Amino acid sequence: MSTPSTTAPYDVDLAQARWRKSSYSGGANDCVEVAELGGHTAVRDSKNISRGSLFFSKAAMRALVSGIASGAIGEHRS
Predict the structure, then answer these.
(1) Distances in Å between the alpha carbon of 27 and those of 5, 7, 17, 37, 69?
(2) In angstroms, what CA-CA distances link 62 with 1, 26, 48, 56, 59?
(3) What is the pTM of this model?
(4) What is the pLDDT of residue 66?
(5) What one-character-per-residue DSSP string does 38-61 give?
């Protein structure tokens, strides 16, 4: 039985990806960048792009952003 994949295919060409940074970054290279790739979103560290990218399904990316915006996901201090 096959399970649905939530990772991008291995043949994704990131050379043509249109990477975006948050406007809150102020142009600095200390944030993450995202690129929309059809049914997936790629995320990379702008200060070390050679480390590669993480791939999320559109649904997983929406859940991540929603969780961060609502405070459900984030830095917790005791």
Answers:
(1) 34, 29, 19, 23, 22
(2) 27, 24, 24, 9, 5
(3) 0.69
(4) 92
(5) TTEEEEEETT-GGG--EEEEHHHH
